[in-house]
Amino acid sequence: MKIGAQYRSLRGISAVAALLAIGAVGCSDVSDAVDSAKDSAKKVTRQRSVFSLDIGDCYNPNGKVEGTAYAVEIVPCDEAHEGQVVGEFAIDKGKGYPGDDGVSTIADTRCPVEAQKYAPDTWALPKGVALFYYTPTKESWATGDRAVSCTYTVEKGTFSGSLGTAKSLKPEQTTYLNGSNAVYEALWANQSEKDAVEDDLAGYKAQAKAVAAALDAHVKGLDGIEGTEVGKLRATLTKAAGNWKKAANAADADTFYIAYAPAFTDINPNKSVAARKELGLATTVPADEAEVWAG
């Protein structure tokens, strides 16, 4: 907090210097100088410590997206901005400092979950937006800092508007997104570190079991949603769940592969586009997801 206050003071000095500079320029430049000074002053008044960010805050970093930060510029969400806070949580206070890598691992695990509570439809995110987070440092941890702020941020360019769509969704949209998000979370959160099934059959089977369970829950949720395309997707996912279960119970790698191929194909995001359109949700598959199934 002390460093953050000093950071804001430095920005204040810059603004004052800009104001004083007006007297040193010619009359034709006064208007530009005034505008520049006003912009600087506005940015100063919008500074807020990263330790006091709230969910929903739209902001501009004062430097690079990654690295140590003490303050950001808070802006109205209808103005162009580089990021928005979409989730927050506190690390267990009973633990000692987990280390930089440990803190990052915790944030990597929790932030996707927290972000989806605020912005459930990742397909609707602006192009270039990615998940970043503000985490405690070793120094701030010693002062009691345990907060993690999860943000959607662009490294290049800006976007406008709030990403908070959870409260505006219809019940059937929420049901669909909760089920769909859980399926892909089960897939990636349980991904084996080994490239070959033969090197970690148990790990791949555990992943298959988790995906099958998530699919069963997703299909159950879709049972209560009407629509021709939703019905088609439900049938496809029911078949997929069956193949994931076969993979989870495979006795050897060859048997696993036989079940895994159709299981993976049937959860290709492209197969859900028609149902999403019927439900009034975004229909453009995110580039990173499309790339996985394109190969």
TrEMBL record:
PROSITE patterns: PROKAR_LIPOPROTEIN. It comes from the Bacteria. Residues 32-150 form the Septum formation-related domain. InterPro entries: Septum_form. It holds the Pfam family Septum_form. This is Septum formation.
